[in-house]
């Protein structure tokens, strides 16, 4: 397992990446934030593997319908639907999960791809800093509410997968708030929270949540000898809409950015490759289709403590009890 270095980053941006197409018949897949960017290209590649159903979970139904039509035309795959999901609203997340539960569908792959960086509104209507809610709190809420549907799927021989898109910027996240009595409250109350660091911190939280969820699932008596593969994915620096308000992001993208189609390869690989399910323990961080060591803040006993604290504090905020999660 490698670790981030500038040399590896630059080399990785031009690395040749690939995945073996798999047969996804009988599989139901959700990709959040898939109307544009990496999520769109991920959905398109998965559509070519012929799943039972592909759901594009997006905040703008008009844009999602357009993406659905395009993917249908380009791939010929027809069982694809736009579903309304606004991660800036806990009510929308709960409505989405309820709709999915009532559909009676199983869930084989949950690809949490949607995110924001430097959003125009500092706070959501729910009162949380927007990046924190969209990238971490709502993504966690959605994952936990969909766990029962994912757990039902473990009856099949194919281990279901939960994936969160993170970023290599999680290596540079500065989190002095970890010494505060409550990390989330402290972060949420600070209007001085720098935009770039806000995004980095939420991407660090994605890695920590994945690690903690994997540890809890590994101990879960409900799963027995079955498993749910949980991973985080760094897609690499990509020429998409995210971060267009940041000059340094724009310059870096001009110099090193790659296409969304190429960056989607790691998401598709982690969502489908049989070898990913064999690489235990789960909770790994993938970059350029390889498991790599995540940031120091996530490692060892201190990393586990931080992930555990974040889990407990986040459950309080999203008002989900351990009993409701049923791990
Ligand atoms: N691009 C990069 O260089 C890069 C590098 C590392 C990691 N990533 C990660 O890759 C993932 C995909 O990013 P991208 O580069 O493809 O960015 P993008 O083109 O901006 O796509 C982001 C997607 O998230 C959606 N989204 C934003 N806010 C939402 C909300 N409140 N509810 C539901 N959906 C929402 C967007 O919808 P709208 O179209 O309606 O805005 C869009 O579909 C993100 O997790 C990002 O952090 C990107």
From TrEMBL:
<dbReference type="InterPro" id="IPR002347">
    <property type="entry name" value="SDR_fam"/>
</dbReference>
<dbReference type="Pfam" id="PF00106">
    <property type="entry name" value="adh_short"/>
</dbReference>
<dbReference type="InterPro" id="IPR036291">
    <property type="entry name" value="NAD(P)-bd_dom_sf"/>
</dbReference>
<keyword id="KW-0560">Oxidoreductase</keyword>
<dbReference type="GO" id="GO:0016491">
    <property type="term" value="F:oxidoreductase activity"/>
</dbReference>
<protein>
    <recommendedName>
        <fullName>NAD(P)-binding protein</fullName>
    </recommendedName>
</protein>
